[in-house]
Amino acid sequence: MSFGGSAAAMIASIKANKKRRISTFEKLKNFKKAKKSTLLFPNKATKKDLKEIRERIQQQNKTSFIKKVVAIISALVVLYFLMRLDSY
After folding, report:
1. Residue 67 lies in a domain
2. What average pLDDT does the chain have?
3. pTM for the model
4. Assigned domain for 24 exists
5. Helices vs strands, H then E, count in the chain
6. CA end-to-end span of the chain, whole Å?
7. How many domains are contained in the chain?
8. Is residue 75 part of a domain?
9. Distances in whole angstroms, Cα of residue 1 to Cα of each of 4, 7, 51, 85, 87
10. How far apart are alpha carbons 44 and 36 in whole angstroms?
11. How far is the C-alpha of 47 from the C-alpha of 55, rounded, in Å?
12. Structural domain harbouring 81
């Protein structure tokens, strides 16, 4: 089974293109754990602010849902009439 020079060239190309990859163990060895990790939230939201945000998001979700339902229903109506026209 002779592949000619193509197989040898392919192997040489693959060896030349290899790069050194860092193993997971090497990454873990170099990982330094922080002494104390805290999350800082400089902006404080009051209960009123949270309620307003919640209501605004719920209203946006409702309008988005209604738009999607209207689009789907209108697409189904159009498809129905196209199918009826095709049968004539």
Report:
1. yes
2. 85
3. 0.48
4. yes
5. 3, 0
6. 65
7. 1
8. yes
9. 9, 11, 75, 64, 62
10. 22
11. 12
12. 5-33+44-87
